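User: I've been trying to design a sequence by hand for this structure and keep getting stuck. Would you show me what you'd pick, starting by listing the structure so we're on the same page?

Assistant: Good idea, let's start from the same input. This is the structure you sent:
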């Protein structure tokens, strides 16, 4: 789970992929984020900027029946394929071991928003702003089927559980959350909806529930859990998890390892860089929204009220530890921390860390907010040196002089041209224009002399 579409941790938790809008992708090891495993690039100006990356699911050697899948929950194997989608609908597959890129033979008409793999691993599904769902053959990299998924954009997609007759299904979201029969491409039912367009879906490890949320909406901070075993349409969510701030993404991780066996652990990453942890039963409907049981965040060691950027989070079904990616997309830092305290219970943890220094400056050049505030107080309430303040004033006067000179020249030229051009005296117009420009320069020099006479010499002398 990540805070944006261009940061993604592999399902096995071993690799971190970060994409750039220019089409390049960097793959890091989560155990050593300073080590770049792969830097691949497929620049294609016609394809548009990269807007979406999605890891393929880890290989499942236990088959694809529902019974076997449930037994294999938590079994992690290597993930080596990464989908890349662009703003103009191009779909590509990157092999993160060899660096090779395979392009699909056709494209969407608009931006790619998400992807999902079939349970048997033979097909890939993508959704787009063009309102369509596309099914791709992974062997031939060709388009198999394409159909309209919503009256507006289709913003999220994930693999669904098998239907009662064993048919493969697909879950999509736009204005509504829908379940589809893959073979016939028919809508089976509408599961539910949010007040705004749904932007994220996450399937539970047992294929029985799905989470939905609206990314970045201050008026819709609820993450809903839907029971897929209930065949009714337009039903209410089983549980509504209330996040304290706008949501970035959410995920059902596993049944809780810290309490009763019927409790499920849900992670919600918010845009204020705080990871909220919920624990609640999904077997019965909750009468009111559920509040977080704990939270995690990194804070600035010099300014405890400042939270550091949190890019992504990942945990597996058998652990109480979580891998957090913090910092910037250009220099990510991966760190594994525990979700529970010393007493074995979830708690609100704020972990002090030193923020990253600028990429072009040494660490000694970065100042804390406290140091900057002290320097500002000593300098009369501003952290800018006198030379910078006077330079800023000079720039303001320069803009004023430039605008006044151009305005004066334009007015004079317009008047002279309108008076003499009908008489076919272009040389008169040219002479007056040059004269007006010269007068404006003389006035400009006079203003500049007055400005510099008011600037103390010590403020302009670097050695002062």
């Amino acid at each position: 789970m990540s805070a944006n579409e261009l940061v993604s941790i592999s399902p096995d938790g071993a690799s971190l992929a970060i994409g750039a809008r220019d089409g390049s992708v960097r793959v890091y090891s989560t155990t050593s984020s300073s080590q770049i495993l792969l830097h691949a690039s497929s620049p294609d100006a016609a394809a548009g900027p990269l807007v979406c990356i999605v890891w393929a699911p880890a290989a499942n050697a236990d088959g694809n029946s529902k019974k076997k899948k449930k037994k294999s929950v938590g079994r992690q194997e290597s993930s080596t394929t990464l989908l890349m989608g662009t703003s103009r609908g191009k779909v590509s597959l990157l092999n993160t071991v060899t660096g090779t890129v395979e392009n699909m033979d056709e494209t969407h008409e608009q931006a790619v928003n998400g992807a999902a793999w079939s349970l048997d691993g033979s097909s890939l599904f993508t959704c787009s702003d063009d309102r369509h769902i596309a099914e791709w053959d992974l062997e031939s990299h060709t388009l198999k089927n394409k159909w309209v998924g919503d009256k507006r954009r289709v913003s999220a997609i994930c693999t669904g559980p098998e239907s009662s007759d064993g048919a493969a299904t697909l879950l999509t979201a736009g204005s509504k959350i829908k379940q589809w029969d893959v073979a016939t491409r028919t809508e089976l039912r509408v599961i539910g909806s949010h007040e705004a367009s749904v932007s994220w879906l996450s399937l539970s490890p047992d294929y029985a529930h799905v989470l939905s949320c609206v990314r970045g909406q201050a008026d819709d901070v609820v993450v809903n859990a839907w029971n897929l075993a209930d065949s009714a349409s337009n039903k209410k969510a089983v549980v509504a998890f209330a996040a304290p701030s706008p949501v970035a993404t959410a995920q059902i991780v596993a049944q809780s390892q810290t309490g009763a066996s019927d409790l499920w652990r849900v992670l919600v990453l918010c845009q204020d860089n705080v990871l909220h942890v919920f624990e609640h039963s999904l077997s019965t409907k909750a009468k009111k929204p559920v509040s977080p049981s704990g939270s995690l965040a990194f804070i600035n060691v010099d300014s405890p009220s400042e939270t550091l950027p949190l890019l992504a989070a990942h945990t597996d079904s058998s652990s109480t530890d979580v891998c957090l990616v913090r910092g910037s997309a250009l220099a990510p830092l991966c760190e594994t921390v525990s979700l529970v305290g010393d007493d074995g219970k979830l708690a609100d943890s704020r972990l002090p860390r030193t923020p990253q220094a600028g990429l072009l400056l040494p660490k000694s050049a970065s100042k804390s907010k406290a140091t900057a505030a002290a320097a500002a107080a000593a300098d009369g309430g501003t952290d800018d040196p006198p030379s910078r303040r006077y330079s800023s004033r000079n720039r303001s006067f320069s803009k004023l002089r430039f605008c006044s000179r151009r305005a004066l020249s334009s007015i004079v030229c317009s008047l002279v041209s309108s008076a003499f051009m009908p008489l076919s005296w272009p040389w008169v117009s040219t002479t007056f224009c040059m004269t007006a420009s010269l007068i404006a320069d003389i006035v400009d020099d006079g203003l500049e002399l007055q400005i510099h006479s008011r600037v103390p010499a010590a403020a302009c002398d670097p050695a002062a």
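That's my pick for every position. To get oriented when you compare it with your attempt: The chain has five helices and 28 strands. The CA atoms of residues 313 and 324 lie 5 Å apart.
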